[in-house]
Write a structure and sequence with these properties.
By secondary structure, the protein is α+β, with helices and mostly antiparallel strands. It is 18% helix and 30% strand. The protein is globular, with a radius of gyration of 40 Å.
């Protein structure tokens, strides 16, 4: 009796082992079974129906050399442009005088700085410092004007040759590095000037010393001060530029020269600062 039961149990174990092997072979990922072939044949399109066409190849991608957007294109970072007419209408003899009118420009070194002025003119965007504002001339970096003051000196930019000024106040650090964190100021000069161009300007400042409150304080300290209307701070500027093309416009030369004199104004020449 015991032998018969043992034999039946062995047959069941063999049957279970055989079934498990066959099921494992169906799910073997190393040797998968071939997929069944589709017996259906493709049907031909009906007459008059739209025939499938091939897609056109993608147009070629044109890569430019600069990632700074142009003023006539829509961009995330705004670009402010100052035309040459603004310099002539303002009667400015220096560049920083017009740039300081922009709200994104913080007045920096220029002709109105007295204490500790190194004699250079700089651009300071957003008040981050002139070392964080990149200055370009026709797309090329402007080098420092003083080795002791490593920032671009815009006094070397000829005002009569300026066509426009482009001011970019964002997104320039990823293109030019840490010296353009505050932004970029690009001066576009006229490189195709033909003929002679001469400009001259004489200007000054008028002030009426009539601050009675300040004058009373100065009288108590016996400090002298100016009175009445004064005209000082005289500025004289004369510039000349000459340009000519050669060899059927394949070569061009431009010569520029200028003379500028600015009379200084001290604090004792005004009643409010005497």
């Amino acid at each position: 009796m015991g032998a018969a039961v043992h034999w039946q149990v062995s047959l069941c174990a063999i049957a279970l082992a055989t079934g498990s092997r066959s099921s494992a072979a169906l799910a073997d990922p190393v040797h998968p079974l071939p997929a069944p072939k589709d017996q259906t044949k493709p049907t031909s399109p009906l007459p008059g129906s739209a025939q499938p066409t091939k897609r056109d190849s993608a147009p070629p991608i044109v890569v430019t050399g600069s990632r700074i957007p142009r003023p006539n294109l829509t961009a995330v970072s705004p670009v402010t442009m100052i035309k040459s007419e603004e310099f002539r209408l303002a009667g400015a003899t220096n560049v920083e005088e017009v740039l300081n009118w922009l709200p994104q420009v913080n007045p920096s070194q220029g002709e109105f700085v007295s204490a500790g002025a190194p004699g250079v003119a700089t651009v300071d965007l957003r008040g981050l410092g002139a070392v964080r504002t990149l200055v370009l001339v026709n797309g090329h970096r402007l080098m420092p004007g003083d080795p002791r003051f490593p920032v671009p000196d815009i006094n070397s930019i000829p005002t009569p040759l300026i066509q426009r000024v482009e001011v970019l106040t964002g997104g320039a650090g990823a293109v030019y590095g840490s010296d353009a964190v505050a932004g970029v100021v690009n001066f576009i000069l006229d490189t195709k000037l033909e003929g002679l161009k001469v400009e001259g300007l004489i200007s000054g400042y008028q002030h009426d010393n009539r601050d009675k409150f300040v004058e009373g304080l100065l009288d108590q300290r016996q400090i002298p001060y100016p009175s009445g209307s004064v005209f000082d701070g005289r500025r004289e500027n004369v510039s000349a530029a000459f340009g000519h093309s050669f060899f059927d416009d394949r070569a061009h030369v431009t010569l520029y020269g200028a003379f500028r004199h600015i009379a200084g104004i001290t604090q004792d020449q005004r009643d409010y600062s005497a």
